[in-house]
Automatic annotation (TrEMBL):
Signal peptide range in chain numbering: 1-23
Gene3D superfamilies per the UniProt record, alphabetical: Gnk2 domain, C-X8-C-X2-C motif
Alphabetically ordered keywords of this record: Repeat, Signal
Organism whose genome encodes this protein: Durio zibethinus
Gene: LOC111278245
UniProt name for this protein: Cysteine-rich repeat secretory protein 38-like
Length: 273
């Protein structure tokens, strides 16, 4: 197992404070990579990294909340992958990325490679290419210490919900791989969940990532009322309260399926749902 299993205590109390401003995100978790190199203050690597981080609060492209950015040239190039939860709009996404990246630099002031998850987004940076690669570490799991009163029914409903959401997210296409939904455990308890992969993963690697996350959830969160499994390429969360927005920014319609008949001019490109 990886070195990174942190538990977030007093989660129940903190849940009720979830409307605090981002500057106090109690869900923030981070990992500083101690192996893949260090940088010094005022180095070229730091300048390259800062040039990306300083853009986050004012990004004008939305990209459905996913960014693969880089600055500088080898050996001092900084690469950043950033992902906002699939129900965020651009201003929410920008402020989460700014906060999370700024905090990550503060917690890991000399590590070339580092990863952070806050409630609403994920930020990774490194001196190497990370795009499209499925990785196992760092990872962590944070749970709500309250237990379900009917754990077997609760977990049955949760497990079906997560399987369903995982296949929807993996099938989501190259812009966004996100799904959210709810299920009811024996009329007693509703469970709400979100799952998401960075959309640079292909469908198979997204499915693999979420399968690992579901297995981890069984180990760290069985019977709990809420849990977040955090991985470099995918995240999963469930709670007993509706914690996400029902409506996400719609994706453009998929292109019409290729027709074997004679080609024709395209119609209605980019129509929104
Ligand atoms: C980076 O610095 C940390 C101490 O801050 C040290 O433990 C680690 O060995 C260093 N890593 C490298 C690759 O030099
Ligand atoms: C880095 O630059 C700042 C501002 O120019 C300066 O105050 C600081 O002493 C420098 N730090 C190092 C380690 O050179
Ligand atoms: C992602 O960023 C890396 C640099 O980190 C770059 O080499 C790669 O071309 C980018 N991929 C895409 C699809 O933008
Ligand atoms: C983004 O969402 C927040 C919270 O729902 C809302 O207050 C804000 O007006 C939205 N911003 C835009 C530009 O839609
Ligand atoms: C970016 O986040 C940092 C850390 O929370 C904060 O101090 C700073 O004001 C934010 N910048 C903007 C432009 O919002
Ligand atoms: C899936 O992830 C592996 C491991 O990072 C990578 O080598 C492979 O290229 C990925 N698959 C695709 C189709 O990108
Ligand atoms: C929840 O269940 C676990 C394991 O059964 C137990 O250790 C823990 O104390 C329980 N938590 C609460 C808040 O009852
Ligand atoms: C639960 O999910 C159903 C769709 O499966 C949806 O119609 C309903 O609005 C959701 N309820 C809540 C409270 O989110």
């Amino acid at each position: 197992m990886g070195s990174s299993t942190f538990l977030l205590f007093s989660y129940t109390v903190l849940l009720s404070l979830a409307t605090l401003t981002l500057s106090d995100d109690v869900y923030f978790e981070h990992n500083c990579n101690e192996i893949r190199g260090n940088y010094t203050a005022n180095s070229t690597y730091q300048a390259n990294l800062n040039s990306i981080v300083s853009q986050f609060s004012s990004l004008t492209e939305f990209n459905y909340g996913f960014f693969n950015l880089s600055a500088g040239v080898s050996p001092d190039n900084a690469n950043v992958i950033a992902l906002c939860r699939g129900d965020l709009n651009q201003s929410q996404c920008n402020s989460c990325l700014n906060y999370t990246a700024t905090e990550l630099e503060r917690f890991c002031p000399s590590n070339k490679e580092a990863t952070a998850w806050s409630e609403l987004c994920l930020v990774r940076y490194a001196n190497r290419d990370m795009y499209g690669m499925l990785e196992n570490d760092p990872r962590t799991c944070a749970y709500n210490p309250a237990n379900a009163s009917n754990p077997e029914q609760f977990n049955q409903a949760l497990s079906e919900l997560l399987n369903d959401l995982s296949s929807k997210a993996a099938d989501g296409g190259p812009l966004r791989k996100y799904a959210a939904g709810n299920a009811t455990a024996g009329n007693l308890q509703t469970v709400y969940a979100t799952v998401q992969c960075t959309p640079d993963l292909d469908e198979g690697n997204c499915t693999t990532c979420l399968t690992f996350a579901m297995n981890e959830l069984r180990n760290c969160c069985y019977g709990r009322m809420g849990c977040r499994v955090l991985r470099p390429n995918c995240v999963l969360r469930f709670e007993s309260n509706p914690f996400y927005n029902q409506i996400a920014v719609p994706l453009p319609s998929p292109p019409p399926p290729p027709s074997p008949s004679t080609s024709s001019f395209p119609t209605s490109i980019g129509e929104q749902h």
